[in-house]
Amino acid sequence: xxxxxxxxQQQESPGETGAMNPRPRDEMRDYVGRDLLRHKRALIxxxxxxxxxxxxxxxxxxxxxxxxxxxxxxDDAKHTANxxxxxxxxxxxxxxxxxxRAHCADxxxxxxxxxxxxxxxxxxxxTQAPVEAPEEISDEQWQRTFDVNIHSYFRVTNAAxxxxxxxxxxxxxxxxxxxxxxxxLIDYAATKGAVHAWxxxxxxxxxxxxxxxxxxxxxxxxxxxxxxxxxxxxxxxFGEHVPYGRVAQPDELAPSYVFFASNQLSSYYSGxxxxxxxxxxxPG
Length: 284
Fold this sequence. Notes:
Elements: E1 41-45, H1 50-61, E2 65-70, H2 74-85, E3 91-95, H3 101-115, E4 120-123, H4 139-160, E5 169-173, H5 177-180, H6 186-206, E6 212-218, H7 225-229, H8 232-237, H9 250-261, H10 263-266, E7 273-276
Parallel strand pairs: 1-2, 1-4, 2-3, 4-5, 5-6, 6-7
């Protein structure tokens, strides 16, 4: 079983996996693929670490080539690429700020060029900054949270759509905070609520094109985002409130993305928000 608690710790944003204690389980070491994504080509934003890394490795084990977009966590990204390549699959690294409109389109162009096309898009990049009161949220913070967490999803998806077709899949990363709100992550929760509603709408409008759109909405997950954005005392207690009494590990969530990416497993699923909440049966 994973650790039930983690010691207090803090990092500078955006955070690095190597400095985390304990290290997250994010390499899918015990996962055995079944060629569910053979010959597929996937772009994963926020793919350098955490959930994105675990998804990239799981996709590779299922036979997919992968492009991962990330900000500037080059060591983490290179490690993820090595894990993908050790499975005999291609991994293209695309660094840059997805809060920038032009970079969103460029990311898709580079992924398509490197992989020879695109079949799966995972919108996963995110940022957060806790506050004690709404008045603490500056206009700049509000704008950046929306630019990264929802505007990049919209922009990357719009750039990807001309390359997607019958049998393609789009998977968005939401959050429990988008289902019930969070008093200290007000702007973050708002963006995740938008991701969920956008998933529902996009699924409806793309059904005639044969493109499925789904969302994974996790509860607490042990990724670099946590020690990089929360105070040390909150990191120590992070995840204690769920019935499981602990955080999720990225390896525990990646199979949900494989499920939604694989037509063999989820051909009748679109417009679904799958909430992985550590035993909670009703958010809120």
